[in-house]
Please model this.
Amino acid sequence: MKRTLLFLAAVAFMASCSAPKYTYNFGHYNYNAGKKASANAAVVTNGGPQAIQPEMLTGSTSNTVETVEMLPLTETKTAPVKKTYAQMTKAERKELRTYLKTEVKNNIKTKKTSVESMSSTKGMDNDLKLAIIFGAVGLVGLIIGGNVFYIIGGIAMLIGVVFFVKWVIRQ
Model:
């Protein structure tokens, strides 16, 4: 019995230490956290990047640097006039409502027949199912005892933990 409890404690310890929740930031320290904000602001304003003017950019295959004078834009694009719902006539409103109804119905039909909606209603994920199955087999193997069953139970528990961690990472 002591051996079983020791083995379960070892498995729980390995599973808790392998979780990436706290280990990915280990060893990183923000050395600028205690400095004053005014010193950081002065550094940024003095050596910050300059604004790029898109009209000044040109493409070339030669290695020489050329300066281009900025030319005024002669063509201006005007945005199309959009009416709000209150500004529309009755016929335009009716046409807009029928168009929106057909679009909503089409979206609902595509969502009902899509694979994503079917997979979301299945229930449990495959990795979670495998984690439960292997965990149950491992627990039964450890409870039964004996040299062979300890090994089988331990391996099944480790496989179950791997599938469980895969499922948790995706969540």
